[in-house]
């Protein structure tokens, strides 16, 4: 990969970037807690319909779940799975 193909994007500048599935996944990291759950559910629905950014469905779901786990450290993984209805989305 040539260096000219790499573009640096700072998290505080994500709002200025056009919406793409990959950028939307990264935006979830800086999403406020008040809207993070709804945004995560939207991304999970997108993941259930198709792969995002050359990742397979399982990887996308795990990435979204991991981001939400770090956003809400006071909740258990089971509570987060229930909150996001992950049992309905798991492809296995």
Please give a structural write-up.
This protein is mostly helical and 92 residues long. The protein contains five helices and no strands. The chain has one domain. Helix 2 packs antiparallel against helix 3. The model has no long low-confidence stretch (mean pLDDT 82).
How many beta strands in the DSSP annotation?
0
- Measured between the Cα atoms of the first and last residue, the distance is 34 Å
**Low-confidence regions:** none
Rg (C-alpha, Å): 14 Å
Roughly what is the average pLDDT, rounded to an integer? 82
Apparent shape: globular
Structural class: mainly alpha
The percent of residues in helical segments reads 55-70%
Defining key terms:
mainly alpha, 58% helix
Describe the structure concisely:
58% of the residues lie in helices and 0% in strands. With 92 residues, the protein is mostly helical.
């Amino acid at each position: 990969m040539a260096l000219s193909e790499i573009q640096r994007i700072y998290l505080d500048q994500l709002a200025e970037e056009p919406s793409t599935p990959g950028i939307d996944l990264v935006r979830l990291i800086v999403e406020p807690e008040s809207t993070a759950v709804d945004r995560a559910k939207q991304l999970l629905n997108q993941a259930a319909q198709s792969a995002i950014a050359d990742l397979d469905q399982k990887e996308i779901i795990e990435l979204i779940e991991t981001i939400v786990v770090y956003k809400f450290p006071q909740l258990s993984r089971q509570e987060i799975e229930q909150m996001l209805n992950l049992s309905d989305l798991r492809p296995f």
